[in-house]
Structures are given as structure tokens and as C-alpha cells.
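Complex record, two chains
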Amino acid sequence: MLALTTTWPDLLVFVTAAALIVVGALGVISVHNPVHAALSLIVTLFGVALSFLEQSADFLAAVEIIVYAGAIVVLILFVIMFLGVDRHPRDEVEPLVGQRAFAAAGAVVTVGGLIFLMAKSHWVTGVMSASTGGTPLASGQGEITQLGQSVFTTYLVAFEVTAALLIIAVLGAVQLARRDRESEVEQ
Amino acid sequence: MSVPASWYLVLSAVLFGIGVYGFLTKRSVLIMLMCVELMLNAVNLTFVTFARTLSDIAGQTVVFFVMVVAAAEVTVGLGITVAVFRRRRTTSVDELTEMQG
């Protein structure tokens, strides 16, 4: 039933995105080198960006590549190389007995519960414009235009607060890095 | 007609589950931060899917803000990691046990 309404290019894009996402995510949690884990994270991010494109979120797909893959992962790679951590601590030792088993059980319960909720609820039945309060997606209008209008009208206060948040984060990071260096000099 | 929304929701649930498992089992703070990014991306994917399904731009707006908060979170998290590493020469969470009761 589902496949009949889907054209094969859409299906191909979805399968590609899903493969990128799952392979990259499994790589993040399975490889033993943090640099390789960061590169696997980039694979996942490209998959997510691809699925954003498929769902007509063009701006967010570009931001996903530029901000996540271009800035955040590069920042993580900088820190990995700055610290000189070429291998992460051994995951095989278990200070907590059965931690991996409990973690796996928790993840399975989480995923199973989410999928069960999706199957039981009516969220995914495609009820059009059941929106409450938000700006509906007008057809024929650019997605970036609508997103910009939404950010700068409805969510203007939140946008300004994020500006303050970014300043605070940058100042906090500088302070964290600088104060320690001064104490080392004093020693 | 694009791929049904439920497929994307299942995909994002799987991605979230992988992130949860990695966050709970990994020892390195850096890998744990990456797993947090995985979970945030899973939620972003859900928001974009619902934005398309419900024809509501608010979902994409939320993703925009989540990305900003993720950037701030990674900045502060890596700053703390660097500060801890300078003092303790480790990024393993198992060796940071001062607050153990």
C-alpha cells in the first residue's frame, strides 16, 4: 500500500539516506578511533541532510552540512587532535556490571516504544493542516521565505535569545580554556 | 508523492536508539558528545518529517533553533573536555570519580 504511492526516485533517495544514516551511526559507536568516529558522524549528517532535501527543507539541509559537518565536527576533530587522543578508553572493561546489556535493553525499549506509539497514534496519517497556531506551509512559496518570515515574526524573541545564548557559549568556552592556562602558568 | 512519513519516523527512532546505546556504553567524552549529536539529529529528522506531513513551517523553525543550541552545547562541552583533560590527562568518564558517594 505504501510503496504504490511512492515513485522509485523518492524510494531510491530514502534508501540511500537511510543507509548513510544507519551505517554512519553504527560507525560512530563501533570504531575504536575517535577520528574515524567523527568521520562516520559526517556520513550520518550527510544522510540526514539528504532526507531534509527529500522533504523540501532545502535551507535546513544546507545548514546541516555547513554548521554540523563544516563547523561542529571540525571543532570535535580539532579537539581530538589538540588533546592528542588517538584512541579512546577501552570500552570492553565494565565498571558497572551488565552496563552494555542494560544499555542495549534501554535502547531497544526506547525504539520499540517510539515505533509502537507511531503505529498506535494518528500522527502519521497525513492529516493536512491540522496545525495549531503555526504558519502553514503555503504551496508555491519558497520554503526559505516562509522559514525566514516565521523566524523573524512568530519566533523573534526566541531568535534574539539564541543570539545571547551563542555569545554566552563563546564567552564560557574562552573562559574555560583561558583560566586553566593561567593556573598552569602560576604553577 | 514522497516516501510515507512513517518510514522517516522509524528511521529517526532507530537513529535515536543507536545514539542512546552509544551514549550509555561509551567511555570517551568525545564519543559521548557525538552520540548526543546523533540523538539531536534524530529529533531534527522527526521535526522536519512532521513539518512536511502537517504542512506547518513551525517544525522546520524548531530544527533551526535546535541546531543553534547544539552548536552552543558542543562549544561548551568541548571547552569543559579540554579543561578537564589539561588537569587530569584523560577524557574517560570512568576516571572522573571525585563526586562518587
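Note: The two ends of chain A are 70 Å apart (CA to CA).
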